[in-house]
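Recap from last week: sequence in, structure out.
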Amino acid sequence: MLWRGIWDGGLDLGGVGNVLAESRTWKVVWQTVLQAALGTAGAILLGVPSAYILYRVRFPFQKVARAAATIPFVLPTVVVGVAFRALLGRGGPLEFLGLDQTVTAVVIALTYFNYAVVVRTVGTMWQTLDPRSAQAARTLGASPSRAFLTVTLPQLAPAIASAGAIVFLFCSTSYGLVRTLGSPGYGTLETEIWRETTAMLDTRTAAVLSILQVVIVILTLIVSEKLSSRTAGRLNLRSHHVSPIGKSDAPAAVFTGLVLVVLITSPIISLVARSLTVDGEWSLKNYRLLATSGQGFSGGSSVLEAIGNSLRIGLVATLISLAIGVPLALVLSRQVRGPLRTGQSFLSGAILLPLGVSAVTVGFGFSIALDSPPLDLRNSPLLIPIAQAVVALPLVVRSLTPTLSSIAPGRREAAATLGASPWRVLATIDGPFLVRGIGVAIGFAYATSLGEFGATSFLARPDTQTLPVMIVRLLGRPGGDNYGMAMAGAVILAILAAGIMAAAEAARKDPQ
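Predicted structure tokens:
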């Protein structure tokens, strides 16, 4: 894909320059960066006070509140987009605000989706901070706000910055949210890549835009890695400083409660309610229609067939990502020195790239790289699972590597000294820890594959439509039945994704 952008029978920097000289190119870049910056700011402003309440103080039903805060992040982006359409769109409780298919709606949805990232990252670090520093400042006469700004906030700054970099990355590559919530004329780098490829048939321009996105992603990843390494030193502390909730915590508690009720749960409630109503009355009609292809379609898959496709393709993609991810996690978890350490760091960064690069770019790359011999996979049933496995691979590796890294190197050396073969060391030392994390890895991979939309939208054929692709297709068609079916399909997709993640967490085992 990168090569297509600069080569046309020879090095073609002039073609690249023509694309970069267009005002629309930089308008799209600006809209992408601005959208990501606003979404990041919103997630931090809402997430930091919530991190304090959910992780620094103790109160009844705290685990329930934490679970509610993480709901958005386990949902596919298409579900989040459709949920906000149900809340803000026609027939929704907040339709009167006029925010449907606006940039504001996209930014609110980005804040919603990434809220959990800030809460978890900042809250986990906040637990490790020794409260005596802030208490000393208060003893010396500092007000609560001054103690927070001068003592606590600087200590939290690495975690906030690290979370912000990750959120910016996610916000700049939120294709599903923009497609489902944005207006037809609104464009980001991702939607422009899709438009140039599918509507304009201009793969050269799409490739150059993909290069611009890769540059943004790489810069963000570099910042994220540096900030994450600074945060990791704090997170390794095992002491947790948690105190009972008090009167002084009331403002933050009320604020967090409002965020959880108004922002986090209301879109999901609106989505479920909208899927169960037809012409203002409660009905299961939208769910019964899922066996059809909807209004205005000339043939094609039904939603039920799309669900079957998603489950089958997701299973194959999960197996592929595990087959590649488990060996990579074993390699990255080993403590090495010298040149091997450099190579290990490079490999770790390379694996992270699909997590940051838009799935649209991944799908575009597959569509032009695997459409001719010797790797002509255009008609292969493995094409979509392979693309989805690439998207899920970083999550598989990242979920397994910390668990395997916690093994003391001396345990492997002691087993080898006692005569154990490398395979037996792997089975008896690494094996129990691998079992501990494999459930979560499977959950991440399967849930990611089920909700994957960007790459699949490029590669799906009429007979291989997945559920996210079908939902967006229904939203783009006029007619109340199509709209209601999209809502019902989104509810089913949310249940599948959340259920798989819950089962994976429940299956987690501790090593003996």
